Structures are given as structure tokens and as C-alpha cells.
Amino acid sequence: MKTPPVVPAAEWQAAWERLLVKEKEFTRARDAMAAERRRMPWMAVEKDYRFEGPTGPASLVDLFEGRRQLIVYRAFYGPDITTYAEGGSYPERACVGCSLVADQVAHPAHLNARDTSLAFVSRAPQADIEGLKARHGWDAIPWYTLTDDFDADFGVDDWHGTNAFIRDDDRVFRTYFINIRGDEAMGGTWNYLDITALGRQEEGEDSPEGYPQTPPYRWWNYHDAYGS
């Protein structure tokens, strides 16, 4: 392997500072992209999609769990999935890429504190999903079984992807969609919030007038301490 040169501390610091300029440009560009997402038009969801959850049948509205926003990741897990790492198979294993995404997911309590729910959906029955979650330590992720055309209608029938929705009482709207390489950044609280219609909901964020915002830092908490 051909490695970069080894340099004194002052030269290393100068090289880092040059790169830092580009990193800050990237951060500002990322923030501008998130601001554009918050100004995306909404698409009304007209169908009555149905799922199976750990407590029985559920509607798309039910997946919100009473919150205003919902993020749904389609994870490929079922008897027909072939993208396993060596030694894996159904029902012990899900798609290796989707499993990597699940391993990256921060505790959903932080999203919940921003009035946002997260859900995974798959074709596998609930008994297998519950076993998979327990086996891999994904107990905190709400995970539902697909029963209709939700995956085909929202671009996740042939490939994984993440859809964002917002709710106005019982009316649901699709607000954003990200897939393929975009999905590899998902899992962290900030990246999830940045694809939602309301964003991080912090003061100073470039959002349309009237969007909910609170002071940065003050809403942060330990995942088991929100509301305590």
C-alpha cells in the first residue's frame, strides 16, 4: 500500500486547515439541501395501507404512534431474500445491507422527542421479525409486516429506501424519499431529521415561517430520560 507522506506537526496542521475549509463548505451545502427538503411539496397518501404489527393489524396512521412525523425504512427480510453474508439464511438473517442499516440506528427516543416516529417494514411475518430483533438487539426499532402495495407505491419494492411522511390528524402526506447511496447515511438522529418536512426543529435553522423550533441543546436528553 502506498501511504501519504509523513510530515511534521506544523505541516500536518496546515494540511488539515486547508481541508477544513472544504469540510465547512460541505456542511453549509448539506444544511442548504436540508432547507430545500423542508420546502418540498407534499403528496397526499390516498390509499388505506395496512400492516401487521406486534399487537395486530395497523394502518399507516398507526405507525405514527400519535406523533406528527414518520420515517419508514423498507428492510428486506423474508424467505425470498438472497443478499446474505456467508453463513446466513432466513429466518436467522435478513439482507446483509439492511442489517447494517439496522445496526446503525440510534435510539428512536431522540426522534420521538422531535415528534417523529421511526418504523421498519418487511415482508416477513411478525414471529420471525420479533426473533430477528431479539437476536440482533434491535428491540427499540418498531418493525411491521407489509401486507399490500405499500412497497411498490413508495419506491421500495426492488430496493431499500427511506420515506418521510407527515400527518395532519388522519391525513397523511409523503414529504421526502431517499434510497441507494443516500440510505448509507441513515441511522443517526440528525440525518433522519434532516430528511423530514420539519427538520431538526431548532432555532436558527432555515425553515419556512411558523415551523416549530426550540433552542438547540435544551431538548437533548438521555434516551431513557425524556419526559422524566
What are the key terms here?
Glutaredoxin; alpha+beta; 228 residues; 8-stranded mixed β-sheet
Extended strand count: 8
Q: Write down the overall geometry.
A: globular
Given as residue ranges, the uncertain stretches (5+ residues, pLDDT < 50) are none
CATH class of the domain at 38-194: Alpha Beta
Give the CATH topology of the domain at 38-194.
Glutaredoxin
- Total number of helical segments? 7
Major β-sheet strand ordering: 1-8-7-4-5-6-2-3
Please give a quick description of this structure.
An 8-stranded mixed beta sheet has the order 1-8-7-4-5-6-2-3.
Characterize the structure shown:
This protein is an alpha+beta fold and 228 residues long. It is 29% helix and 19% strand. The longest helix is centred in the first third of the chain and has 29 residues, at 9-37.
Strand and helix layout:
Layout: H1 9-37, E1 43-44, E2 50-53, E3 56-59, H2 60-63, E4 69-74, H3 96-104, H4 109-112, E5 116-122, H5 126-136, E6 143-146, H6 150-153, E7 161-168, E8 171-179, H7 189-194
